[in-house]
Amino acid sequence: MMARILIVDDDGETCRFMAELLERPGRELRTTQRVDEALHLAKEQFDLLISDINLDAQQNGMDVLRAFKEGNPSGQVVLISGFGTLQTAIEAVRAGAYDYISKPFNISEVKATVERALADAASPARIERPRIDVAPPGLIGRTAAMLAVYKQIAHAANATAPVLIAGESGTGKELVARAIHTNGRRASRAFVPINCGALTETVLESELFGHARGAFTGAVADTKGIFEQANGGTVFLDEIGETSPALQVKLLRVLQEGEVRPVGASRIVKVDVRVVAATNVDLEREVAQQRFRQDLFYRLSVIVIHVPALRDRREDIPLLMETFLESACSRAGRRVELTPAAIAALTAYRWPGNVRELENTIERLVVFSRGSIVDLPDLPFKAAAGPDLHERLFADLPSLDEIERRYLVHVIEQVGGNRTRAAEVLGIDRRTLYRMAERFGIDLSDEKST
Predict the structure, then answer these.
(1) Whole-model pTM?
(2) Sheet bearing 234-238, strands edge to edge
């Protein structure tokens, strides 16, 4: 059966690139750069719509999506965005999108996503994806790594299974947990967090499960634990890897049976909660070394979301700095600006404490800055020495830009000047290829030019 695909983008080069990339026997592809034509074509029967969200018109990709879903209820939609955000992911899933991908394109990702979407569209047992509300503020980032997190949140929100959030300290795991809760069916009920690594085993057990009057010295009344307090809502177990084996057994019972026994009580209490756990240690390694129960790990890790370290998404650092600087200045009642040199040094820093360390650093710079400008000497670590160190150690080596330029020239030469093939080898779209060539002064006007 012929698979029909509609491609919508206001950039003709992107339309041509996408059509060339996805063309194969057994497929019919239609492309358009005009929103009005896309809305008309959307009434026809297509298996898949691929559309840019930000079209150069009053109506955008979300409007095309809605029109397409009306005419093609069993069809699938993949949206394209140059600025991935959590709100975009939530809105796309809520409107019925199968997935969305970011620019510049990763060719392997595009192909795999399209294959899955077409297979899903052809499946008679396809289940409609959940529709969820707009996400709360807090998570910031537009890199591919954060885009992956946003999409996982969007799809995990209305599921009932436990979620395990993995990532280093300070990466924003609790923000991810809150976003899952806020956009799920339990959003109107309580979200109760607890740090399992901050309490002793005895205190943690009492906090989680509650206790009966007289269970221990100072227990003057029956007290509900967190699982009872959050009944109908979500319990967030931060640093779950710090729990003892004995407590892990009791947590497993909550997940399997939906019931808790307060400390010192004979009664069983039924609870209905969704458990979201977080860890900054490798739980699989802990299981292998018999420091964490394997059965509990499998129960918790039905859905796993990995939050990237800040050093693995450096392109987000300037955006984070801008946001934190605005907030810190507002609290301090003064305006402070960072020089380009300071921004570069902060971006290059490793940030072992991740986003939390960056936010605290910006706050400290605003509070203690003597003037309205923060420069390299004002930074609280050795980042200011970076440029001189770079010059001493790497004076004889090419810059990253020069390496990138040489590689681009090499690829173009190897493919005989074929721009489509060059873009495919580089893993980018042709529009990005032209931007790179322009930046490096490489003429691509002739098909064989390098």
Answers:
(1) 0.64
(2) 191-195, 234-238, 274-279, 163-166, 303-306
